[in-house]
Amino acid sequence: MALEFHDHRADLVSWAFGLGVSREATQIYAAADTIDLHIESFVWTRAFGYDLARRHGRGLLAGGYYSQVDFPRLLEAGMTGSVWSICTNPLRLRGQRTRISLENLRHLRALIEAHPDELRVVTDHAGYVDARRQGKHACWLAIQGGNALDSQPGDLERIPDNLVSRITVVHLTSSTLGATSSPLARADSGLTELGRDYIRAMNAGRILVDLAHISRRGFWQALEVHDRSQPAIVSHTGVCAVHDLWRNIDDEQIKAIAATGGVIGIVYHSSFLGGPTWTGSARAIVDHMAHVVRVAGDDFVALGSDWDGLIVTPKDMRTVLELPVLVQYMLDRGWSSERIGKILGGNYLRVMKAIRPGSLGAAG
Asked: Which CATH number fits domain 8-355: 3.40.50.300, 3.20.20.140, 3.40.50.880, 1.20.1300.10?
């Protein structure tokens, strides 16, 4: 079934006018690989039947918390790739989690593959390049909360067709793998022995290790056992130097991720960025990006929205449709089109090429 959407790339001047940005902003955006490292919309599909194939408005809360992304708006926004997260339910019994997680993988894959003319599930860099060549939007699949697949040794090997390209090791609650950075953690107990083995198993399967949400102690312990020939990332976060918060990472952590060749995706949640929850500006996202650039360089920062992850995005960028606004704020800082292109997608493509360069499975 074909997805209905308006392709703004056909008239960049009108698109710029409608968003209140310069023509240069839409030109740079339209020419770039634009890849988001963390989209959570599938959680609303699982919980409430949110139809990813239907073009939604901003929902009951005017773009707050949900209804920020769907397949048509993703295409209308001109994005070329995205990482779709499957969030682990921490309350589910451990013995049930692997089965349910594999079912969720099949479900999300089927939703995407129902639209083969516009979307494609990919597992590696080569799959993305091929999808891009065919004019399709590339979707990588990821898991948030490694305890989705922790019931027994070998659970990671049960993933079909190398479908999972990335796992966020810990989410908002501590698990069998380690401690969360969330205030819900009673103490920073770091990474467990199972967590260490899990990192090693992810490395063996060339699954990208994502250290968003993990406690500071767990972060460093994970990097101690991590294969130094592979990149590690923090997919969606802010930085403490701009806004000091439990959810964000500090300069040492930024440098450590850069040393692996990985990237830091900047989250769009206004309160994590340091702005007022409902009236913040997307300029704050660029403030956090700019700090990563100062600390580590412009090869190590990316888009890590957390769209539909119960976040409240800046008032001038409530949904995916306003992404060129972010480019305008980058231009306002005097950033070059080359730097902007790296941040929009080039840096993440480098990471994927490093960890999964070729076609590893049927999906990619």
From this structure: 3.20.20.140
